[in-house]
Amino acid sequence: MKxxxxxxxxxxxxxxxxxxxxxxxxxxxxxHSITHSLASKLIQRTFLSSDSEAIIQEGxxxxxxxxxxxxxxxxxxxxxxxxxxxxxLAYLKEKxxxxxxxxVHLRPTAPYRNPAWIDAAIQLLIDHPTADSVRSVSAxxxxxxxxxxxxxxxxxDPIMKHEHEQPYLLRRQDxxxxxxxxxxxxxxxxxxxTEQHSMTxxxxxxxxMDPNDVIDIDTPLDLAFAQFYLNHKLENK
Length: 237
Prior knowledge:
Layout: E1 3-8, E2 23-24, E3 27-28, H1 29-39, E4 45-49, H2 53-62, H3 81-96, E5 102-105, H4 115-127, E6 133-138, E7 148-150, E8 156-158, E9 180-189, H5 190-194, E10 204-208, H6 220-235
Parallel strand pairs: 1-4, 1-5, 6-10
Antiparallel strand pairs: 2-3, 5-9, 6-9, 7-8
């Protein structure tokens, strides 16, 4: 099977300036994801998509393929993942007549990622031919059975009341297993993207991760934690 990865890393970032070039443990966020991909035993080609010359040069330095500068209309902050992936696949088909079977999405916002996890997630998709994609998930820190919205009068309204009359009163050991999407690894079939025009499709198989292994950088606080955590791990190797 032809298996590639794509690391999308646009230049604009509102929450953290130049986030994708921010260094953690001596390596940029982009550099971490490229390194993870190149260390995979199953990924054959590693691509970077960016509109930023600085990020492109960083990607080339770490060994990614950067066949184009991402068009400006695909680099705005409201643009979803799907057109970015469609753009790469269309480019490869047109320029190289290269059609991968599986595409792995590795976000630079996840600087802690064992390459063995990537290969395990890829293998899950290979082993489950009816699945459209695999996504990494973890148990939530706050169980949805104990989460509320506010009703029209301002009272707490349990969001899982359709599952149980008083879900928030269940004992911890009686709560059902539930998972949240942790943004560490996505594995998708080419057909899911090109035919369903979706990053996931309808049948998503889980790659279940320990929540303690999940780092997803969105805020300055996330960044500070990641810097502390990864620096500490390197010091104690």
